[in-house]
Amino acid sequence: MEIAIIAHDGKKADMVQFLNENKALLQQEGVKIIATGTTGSKAIAAGFKVKRYLSGPMGGDAQIAARVAEGKTQMVLFFKDPASSHAHEADINMLIRICDVHNVPLVTNEATAKRLVETLRK
Predict the structure, then answer these.
(1) Looking at 9, 14, 61, 81, which residue is catalytic?
(2) Are 61 and 92 contacting, i.e. CB atoms less than 8 angstroms apart?
(3) Binding-site residues
(4) Residue ranges of the binding site for substrate
(5) Tens digit of pLDDT for each residue in 47-77?
(6) pLDDT band at residue 87, thresholds of 50, 70 and 90?
């Protein structure tokens, strides 16, 4: 299963904490993690094996959306920061739409991510 991780700047520390809390599950054989640039760098620094794409504002959200559309990515964990505006909002909305079109689970906050990961444990 390929899981994409994305986090806005104000949520990157939360993403790394979430990854560490779920390390055993996310490092299982058969689980591949991909990420936008800076989020991927933070995850790698925390000891995760991650395939990095471009930073979100530079096209990384669009690259991950393409992988969803191609059927390569089965889940997207996107810790959005609702308190700030983002220059690449169009790409974010496109990613959300592509996940909806292809019926790929997308979570946009940590509480929902925790619930989704619980279902994977079963």
Answers:
(1) 61
(2) yes
(3) 8, 12, 36-39, 55-56, 88
(4) 8, 12, 36-39, 55-56, 88
(5) 999 999 999 999 999 999 999 999 999 999 9
(6) confident
